[in-house]
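User: Can you write out an input/output pair for a complex, sequences first and structure second?

Assistant: Here is one pair. Inputs:
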Amino acid sequence: MTKNIELINWVNHWKEIFQPKNIHWCDGSEEENQNILDSMVASGVAIKLNEEKKPNSYYFQTDDSDVARIESRTFICSETPEKAGPTNNWEDPNKMKQEMLKVYKGAMKGRTMYVMPFSMGPLGSDKSYIGVQITDSPYVVVHMRIMTRMGTKALEVLGENGHFIPCIHSVGYPLEEGQKDVKWPCRPIEEKYICQFPQTKEIWSYGSGYGGNALLGKKCFALRIASVLGKEEGWLAEHMLILGITNPKGEKKYIAAAFPSACGKTNLAMLIPTIPGWKVETIGDDIAWMKFGQDGRLWAINPENGFFGVVPQTSISTNPNAYLSIQHNTLFTNVGLTPDNDVWWEGIGYECPEGSLDWKNRVYDKNSSEPCAQSNSRFTAPIAQCPATDPAYDETNGVPISAILFGGRRQTTVPLVYEAKNWNHGVMIGSVIGSEITSAVIGLKEGELRHDPFAMKPFCGYNMGDYFQHWIDLGKKTEQDKLPKIFCVNWFRKDNGKWLWPGYGENSRVLAYIFDRCNNEDIAIDSPIGKIPKPGAINIEGLKVSEQDMEKAMKIDKKEWETEIIRTEKFYEIFGSHLPKELREELQTIKDNLK
Ligand code: OXD
Ligand code: MN
């Protein structure tokens, strides 16, 4: 137990409000974890998977309404709408708290209130922060134990006087005396709340038990609240993977990369290079916290301790390292269940065994138009289980970042790789990444660009225009040659409907080019939009990509770029006076270069 008075008072305060049956302070031990899993198996919430096929692994199915993050019910409750900015849902903090206190009252009746101290980042690192989450969901407890450093050790770091980020969570399904529980307690979508209070650095969540809505260390804390902390304290909380890359001479560098959803971020984080002698190792696949070190360079940690990855299409051939990471000690949510208690999903690489159940617990019909595994079904596994985990993933200092990559899913316009001319230009590149709409989406036309600046649109805890300014300002805090070089990559360019670049492990060829550029090798030339590889600078030996395809993949088409500039100008309008003048200047330079 703790002697931290702030924590004790806080827990007592919430106990009064939630009125749980009892309180459990989580120690994070193996024994505690097993007891919670056993009780979920006994109550039918979890199924223990086949011990021979998936040792020490468990299976869960959620309610239909609780399968993903819900952006329409995610609120940034800053003092004013302007502070939340044009890309967030704003609500008044006092009004929101009043509204939520009504639903929080008695919300844990008949349930255990778990108190989970956790560290985001390696225990004791000066880049890490302590949070404490209160929850009534045992599912959340076993997941937070994998995704964070949770339990007594985090409490010890907090100490008697330390401060923590308070995270409140309830599924919103109290049990009256004698009332039977349901398999997945939660509230309907319109009654769910995922609220961030940037001024007081609090998180209040209600009505969902799933993913980023409920594992509050992840998107709510490590991105939305941490982005505000980063702005106040002079560092960066980013939606980025971190990987280590070693060249054939044994020289190693670290790269961070931001991509919007569905652009293969986990695949890149765990890539197996196809070019001989190169090695890629994984520090993280989702979030990076970066602070300046004493040497003036940016050093990054992954605040998480596990992977919460999308399952469908993960196979031994698409992403061997992810596939091997989830063969034991793994929690699966909303995939298919085979008759011998193994898991199955679309793209696993073999036929679905006869008699399997789909994620809605119905016998799976191969001819059905519905998939067996929900499209956002997830695996949760410790980082340390990945065969390519970088030994530095738990380093308290983190790792020095040499390059930052921004990417998106672009069928046209954006070349395979180009390099920002300077930091501000790189910030401009990050501010306009996005993906083209490939099939009709409500309110958007095919071909239209959906911007996702820095892949942070759903995750920035304050005005995105001020966030751009923060990036610009940080670039002035050190010598220019100490800053990471910034690149834009696009694996998805097409010609006549055909991909120009094979992607996956072949992306190592682009990473190798970036690596060499970080050593200032003379392999780039200027172009109107930034530095591009000299012809032949990207090794395509052994690839079925012709020189002509390579030219098309790298082409800078004046017309396409003119359209791009018009789109960017239009997009920038939403930020009004919050848009940094430096971004306008960078855009103007490109416009002039294209003339
Ligand atoms: C995630 C996301 O789940 O970005 O990581 O949505
Ligand atoms: Mn993510």
